[in-house]
Specification:
The protein has 592 residues and is of the alpha/beta class. The chain is built from 19 helices and 14 strands. Strand 1 (298-299) and strand 2 (302-303) form a beta hairpin.
Amino acid sequence: MNVNTYQSNIETLTKEAENLSARDKKMSITRLIVALASATLFYQYYSSDQPVLLICGLLSTAVFLLLVRKHRVIRWKRRMADEKVAINQDEISYLEKGELVYEDGAELSQHDHPYSYDLDFFGNHSLFQSLNRTATLRGKQILAKSLLSILPKQEIEATQEAVKELTPLLDWRHEIYALGRLEESSQEGYDQLMEWSQKPGSKSSLTIRILTFVLPILVLTMMFGYFVLDYSLAGNITGMFMLLNLVILGLHYKELRYELLTSTETEKVLKQYALLLKSIEDQAFQSRKLKGLQATLKQEQENASKAIQQLSALFERLEHLTNIFAGPILNGILLYHVHILRGIKNWRQNHARHVKQWLDVIGEMEKLNSLANFHYNNPSFTYPNINTEKRIEFEDLGHPLIPGEKTVTNSISFKDHNFFILTGSNMSGKSTFLRTVGVNMVLAGIGAPVFSKRATVHPLPVLVSMRLSDSLNDSESYFYAEVKRLKYIMDRLEQEPCFVLLDEILRGTNSDDKRNGTIEVIRKMAKKEVFGGIATHDLEVCNVANEFSDSLINKRFEVEIVNDELVFDYKLRDGICQNKSASFIMKKMEVI
């Protein structure tokens, strides 16, 4: 059971975090002792002027710097362990209590999309929130985008192969997820990085470029003459050359300021990207899709992770420019930040065109990890066989967001009949069944596993009219919005076969118009290559199946009254609904 695996991970990682915490404390004490020892040695040297004390002081300072670096690594490992503990705890909460702490993508909802709004793909307790194990902005965007369109057969099969390979790689998937969670990537930061990468490069004049190398050499030479050879004139010349260096720095100030603004927003996130890319590069994959993603990260014999790490290091050094002590000294002597600026320009010229592609690889991998996690948490789900012969069948189909103990599965086949007319009383399960079919059709169409014992799917465009709303901004009534959606569906059916789901259409008009309109819609669709179904309360609509017996079939959900209570079994049957519940419910609640 996966909950046991998550719990075991928590126990292991908690112990690891405790050990790292203990090492963190010891390292803090050790650093303090070494720092005090170093300060004491330098003080003793200035008091006694003994060279051995200076050497010892310098050595202790070097040890201190090494300890700082090692301490940073320990704290990073501890933070990673804590993140992984949280990840496993979240999965247990999801599996045992149905709690979803993941971003729900509510802002991504599109009311005019052919199916995502009607099928509740975004928002609280949505399909997106259930799937979402992305941590970067690009990962979230790519996962959301994948839910909005159906892939061709070959891409579906390639995605299935990749997701199958990733599903058992739990530790590696959690590594990627934890790395992504270390720093929050914002839309502003992403846009700024994209703008920066697309900015055309510029070059300084040849004279300035020569001076940036010659002047630091002259400054160092004059400093040697002044401090070592005791040549007093060299001190004045040193000051003149340093002043000239600062003038050259000023000539580059505008460019430096632009780069500094970008580095402030992105430097930490770039470190995160470098670690993510390194993890992807180092993992051994077998599937074509995953190998293809890895190949994208190798450009001109250099890995993307190394290049991004180089840019992060350049941005980090650039930030020393704002230090009121180090900045003037480094630039007055070495023109330090002018050389950093040149390094950034060279990096942009060599690598900037690949940045978006590299970040897309991270996002695509996060999307695939999300689908793999979905299958890991639902091992009974299956990957449908994908075909191009218009065969669509689901055996024991269920809604992936309904907890297992509450799920009632139904089988549906479109082999003998392309389209079903579904009847049933209120609360019998008609709308839920339509959503179940629609959600699984989309999951099949993006390469994800579906909640079905066995499935065969021809990927088709999914078009749904179930939950439209008044568009007050466009001054549209519900009825007009629904007619526009139906017009869109009819136009698509003129172009290609589609999978269509309709729920109680034309609710914004009177009963006669609704009945006649619904019948005419079904008649028109029956003459086209349409797959799917329509739910209706109007039993007279079912008669249209007799006109198109080769393509239309009636399906139903029934309700029984047992001991003065309604009993729903939510099992799909052939034929037209026989029982009604509306009057019974209203009488029972003393409405009538």
